[in-house]
Amino acid sequence: MSENKTTLTDAVHDLLKKAIIEQALKPGMRLPEDTVGEQFGVSRTIVRHAFVRLEHEGLIATRRNRGAFVAEPTRDEAQNVFEVRRCLESDVIRLLCKRMPESGYDRLESHVRHEQAVRGKDGPVAIRLAGEFHILLAELTGNPVLARYVAEVVLRCSLILSLYARSHSSDCAVDEHSQIIEAIRSGDAAAAIAIMEHHLGAVADRAALVNPQDSIQSILSHYGKELAP
Amino acid sequence: MSENKTTLTDAVHDLLKKAIIEQALKPGMRLPEDTVGEQFGVSRTIVRHAFVRLEHEGLIATRRNRGAFVAEPTRDEAQNVFEVRRCLESDVIRLLCKRMPESGYDRLESHVRHEQAVRGKDGPVAIRLAGEFHILLAELTGNPVLARYVAEVVLRCSLILSLYARSHSSDCAVDEHSQIIEAIRSGDAAAAIAIMEHHLGAVADRAALVNPQDSIQSILSHYGKELAP
DNA sequence: GGCAAGCAAATTGTATCCGATTGACGGATG
DNA sequence: CATCCGTCAATCGGATACAATTTGCTTGCC
Q1: What is the C-alpha to C-alpha distance for residues B72 and A201, in angstroms, rounded to an integer?
Q2: Do A88 and B83 touch (CB under 8 A)?
Q3: Which of B52, B139, B149 to mutate to test binding with chain A, by most A CBs within 10 Å of its CB?
């Protein structure tokens, strides 16, 4: 934590984000400002700034005078996030079918090859790459605003899957990524969107099916709110 | 500024947001933390927290050790925001055609009547209501995540129009709002989207046509970035 | 044995303070 | 006369200090 050309807040923000999406920090886990601060060797001020951003991104939730917690979306919230993701990624496809940049296909195929290289490994790298494919698609539209929103929902989806899905390993079938590329190349927006919907639908459905028997305290915490107003 | 049940940061955030979209704070205007803080009677800490959120929402831009400025989007950025807005609002229409809630039409028509009541007045109220129609549409989807994104881009569009458009008075033709409601009621998603696209397209085009001869320093400030890395 | 009230500890909300970086002004110099 | 460099004021990034609120535990009472 010695020298950064970027601001400390950014660094802490990125680190926490990474920790959350890699499931190092599990949903519902408490994040006291002091603890985080002294862990990274920074003051509470910095941590607090990072928390503001993370809360805005939906990755943590803060309650007045009670502290910050890693977000623990309900099924409803999760469905909402997935719905927005489907909408946004459909829009991305539509735009790409109209104006895919020259180097676009090369970059996409290169990324898919990268994904295939780590296929089967059930680690943080695979999780990250799977998400980054979708973020790369959004970036290729040339619209940074759209790309930021896509990146945000993709991240939240990672968090959601870590709550409700059993394993990350097959979140994004690499084959389907290739299919999406081909569909876009053919210029058939409807077909490409159909594949993407199927691709994302499968992920969302899988999340909805799993009963989170391994996180009893998570379930109870939701019911508990009723008794303690 | 005496008693708030919500946190001070929220209050400052809301106030600044309101000031920006009502053009009280004009794009490019400087926002020193001290000034804002003592103006609202709070410390710089609070202001900085509010700034973090505002920057995330694209309403202000901060430069290291130089302070915060009301966002001054370039034409490219503005086009990107409008594009995302078109995408998101089309998605909203699609969803509403499938599942408009019972009270939805009542609330929409009530809002339109409210808009007609202030028709012709070129004040902050008209600006706010015009945007809130679109935000209300998004909220009726029942998806808060989508609603938040729509609210964000609508706000940014307000800011953009205050930069590039001559007048806010005719941003949202109230008649077109009624047409949109009717199109959704008929269940014809394609038609409704077409109207919405036209509605938003007109606004965007108007913004693109106006040459901002009245803000030379704004133009130069953009070119100036090239010389001063 | 259970419940309510009250006290102590922990944690957040806010303010103030110090150091660092930036931009500007002004004088020295080729 | 233009350019360069040093000093200075302004402002932000970050740390620390204090106040307010919540929480959990203890204690006493029913």
Answers
A1: 39
A2: no
A3: B52
Work out the angle at residue A122's Cα, subtended by the Cα atoms of residues A121 and A126, and round it to the nearest 5 degrees. Answer: 80
Closest-approach nucleotide to residue B62, Cα vs C1': D12
CA distance B99 to A71: 28
CA of B76 to C1' of D5 (A): 40
A137-195 pLDDT per residue, tens: 999 999 999 999 999 999 999 888 888 776 555 556 788 899 999 999 999 899 999 99
Residues of A in contact with B88 (CB under 8 A): 87-88, 91
- Please tell me whether residues B57 and B80 are part of one structural domain: no
Range of the domain at A60: 3-70
Between B158 and A108, the higher pLDDT residue: A108
Q: What angle in degrees, to the nearest 10, is found between the helix axes of B144-164 and A75-99?
A: 50
Among B7, B53, B83, whose Cβ lies nearest the Cβ of A143? B83
B177, A117 contact by CB (below 8 A): no
Residue B154, in any domain of the structure: yes
- Could you read off the pLDDT of B6-63 as tens digits, one per residue? 788 989 999 999 898 888 888 989 999 999 998 999 999 999 999 999 999 999 999 8
In a domain, B24, yes or no: yes
Structure tokens at A206: 């899988």
Q: What is the pTM of this model?
A: 0.87
Quick one: B121 and B140 in the same domain? yes
